[in-house]
Amino acid sequence: xxxxxxxxxxxxxxxxxPLLAGWxxxxxxxxxxxxxxxxxxxxxxxxxxxxKQPVVSKDASxxxxxxxxxxxxxxxxxxxVIPLIAVDxxxxxxxxxxxxxxxxxxxxxxxxxxxxxxxxxxxGMGSSREMTISTMAEPAMLMAVFTLTMxxxxxxxxxxxxxxxxxxxELRPSFIFALFALILVAVxxxxxxxVDNPATHLELTMIHEAMILEYSGRHLALIEWASxxxxxLYGVLIANIFFPWxxxxxxxxxxxxxxxxxxxxKLAILxxxxxxxxxxxxxxxxxxxxxxxxxxxxxxxxxxxxHIILEAAR
Amino acid sequence: MEIENLDHYSQVILSLAAxxxxxSFIMLAQGRLxxxxxxxxxxxxxxxxATAIAAYSFDNPHLYISAxxxxxxxxxxxxxxxxxxxxxxxxxxxxxxxxxxxxIMMGGASLVVFSYYVLHPIMQNSSMILxxxxxxxxxxxxxxxxxxxxxxxxxxxxxxxxxxxxxxxxAATVSTNGMPMVVELGVxxxxxxxxVLFGIFFLHISSSIDSLDVDKMxxxxxxxx
Lengths: 314, 225
Hints:
The complex is a heterodimer. Chain A is an all-alpha fold. Chain A is 73% helix and 0% strand. Chain A starts with a helix and ends with a helix. Chain B has one domain. The A-B interface holds A 167, 169-173, 176-177, 298-299, 302, 306, 309-314 and B 1-4, 8, 11-12, 14-15, 17-19, 22, 25, 116, 128, 132.
């Protein structure tokens, strides 16, 4: 039963990710006085891409073809670990946060390889930038996650969220720092505005788009979908770790329905905040990203320190 | 005593203490004056919320007045005045090149450790929240001094000075559950007068040496060298 639920939850996650992207785009359009596309536009885009014939360069190796499948499946495995609407899942018990970060790194590794594979200047540039950013984002993310895991004394996400839930409303200085660190890392990792502009192919500053420039058809659809999944993954991670209230703790139908509504509401609010910040901020210069991420690392470190100094028993 | 066992008031105060220290660090690394003033206003706002929460949880109405005064002075008036000066003296586009930012930040971190080291023996028998909040406010005071040492612009010095005052204010609010009204009014008035005087000084310094960089003042001599 619970295995079935875990599968349904993962499928729900996959199905909802384009909707989140559509909602985010809609919010941004309204904020910028543009006419918003329909909420279902990302689904239509994905559908359109799957119908098109993929064009593969004659210089591309087998790696270029299989990379989208690897990236998509690694991301799907990563999201199956995260509690979306219910806390205790059998899949969540099998892998912890560090494995989750590992899966994301695995997907990114193949994305970077695929960018390098064809040998165009843009692909290589995008890969190099992506890896540069991820080398700084990953420690910051782990720092933020360690703050949580030290509080809950487990690296298992389900147990940690259960711990936060059981504790009730506690205001911890370390969690405030970890929350901000994780938000900054999420912005950098999902390629949102101060770090990367997801909406354009025209700038020389593009990072994610530069890597996938050579992809078309169903390959592009898979990669786009994977990056929408990643955006939702970070959103769910932030929402469920720091504001876990509403998530289903029992496997009854009303609790699950309530959990689904709660996570949808939380994600909608998070996306709105992201849309507002994207409208307010301008994209940073590439060489400022390092400052941005070391600030995230600093916040993560401060979170851990304040856990040790301010909160521990004496 | 762990944080789970504390009441919500202590948790909020601890969180605010941590955030106030963070704003001090942000100010320390800030090269742009407008942003420095904004972060200073943010720090003031955290003080206001700490005071208001203390007023609420101890049912101490005169703290509301103190919070209101802080809000009016440190969150609105002084930042507004500093901002006006920066815009008037056309300094908002200058980025101050901080010499050796990393060393300053490391120095700041060691100041935090130092204030714990100093206060730990004294506060041995008091509650954990008092020790933490006092150490962090001492750290904010020391960080304010470090800000004054490391920055060259006179406006940054004023912000450093005011953030020292913020640290003292936070310590007073946390440790005494609110000072007597007379003391607070006196301090608030002092700050107000200081802010106005600084404003006048800015104009005079900038009109006489054409810059607010205090390093240039070292070169002012009676005798030509």
